[in-house]
Amino acid sequence: MSASSDNHIQTNVDHATGSHATGVADSGRWSTRRIAVYALFVALAMALSFVEFPIIPGIAWLKYDPSGIVCLIAGFAFGPSAAAIVSVLGFVPHLFMDPWGTLMAVLVALALSVPAAFIYRRNRSRKGALIGLIVGAVVALVVAILGNLVVTPIYAHMTVAQVAALIVPALLPFNLLKFAIHGVVTFLIYKPISNLLDR
């Protein structure tokens, strides 16, 4: 049997099992293509992390950035490890400017994308994606609220009570809207992007 026939059979197997053609064998070995795609996701997450704007009227200091969408799509396409890598490395440039804020951003991105990727990996369907996005949003919301109660008083010269007073009027609506935007956009575009990566 020729090498081209072997490649054709493997391609059919990949499509039949729903796996993505990342050039990585089941042993987990890294390929040049996989490294390049991961680097692309990280670079895109980095770029989008600087696109910040307020989404709640009257609360300009809480700013939305779309980098979490990239973390989710990476997780859906390549699994929880990809979600974790993009979530962490995507915020590296901010570490030198705002270390505490960066810590919060990384924790929330991990809490959102990693559980979603785990669930989608076990149920690779639109239903699995929807459940993953909802579970990830719930976990991330808890992490965001608790993280603000612990981290914000350290660097913002606020007491825990002052931060707690902001949960209902500011932190809760901001994070709910943020995760809703992440989830809707990811749900709409993850499949076309995954199909593109399979080519």
List the helices and strands and how they pair.
Blueprint: H1 3-17, H2 32-49, E1 53-54, E2 63-64, H3 67-78, H4 80-89, H5 92-95, H6 99-122, H7 126-155, H8 160-164, H9 167-198
Antiparallel strand pairs: 1-2
Helix pairs in contact: 2-3, 2-4, 3-4, 3-6, 3-9, 4-6, 6-7, 7-9
Subcellular location: Cell membrane
Family: Belongs to the prokaryotic riboflavin transporter (P-RFT) (TC 2.A.87) family.
Membrane topology: Multi-pass membrane protein
What does it look like?
By secondary structure, the chain is mostly helical. It has a single domain, classed as Orthogonal Bundle (Arp2/3 complex 21 kDa subunit ARPC3). The chain has nine helices and two strands. The chain has helices at residues 3-17, 32-49, 67-78, 80-89, 92-95, 99-122, 126-155, 160-164, 167-198; strands at 53-54, 63-64. Strand 1 and strand 2 form a beta hairpin. Helix 3 (67-78) packs across helix 9, helix 6 (99-122) packs antiparallel against helix 7 and helix 7 (126-155) crosses helix 9. The longest helix has 32 residues, at 167-198. The relative contact order is 0.12. The chain crosses the membrane at residues 35-62, 69-94, 100-120, 129-151, 163-190. Probably a riboflavin-binding protein that interacts with the energy-coupling factor (ECF) ABC-transporter complex. Belongs to the prokaryotic riboflavin transporter (P-RFT) (TC 2.A.87) family. One of its GO terms (molecular function) is riboflavin transmembrane transporter activity.
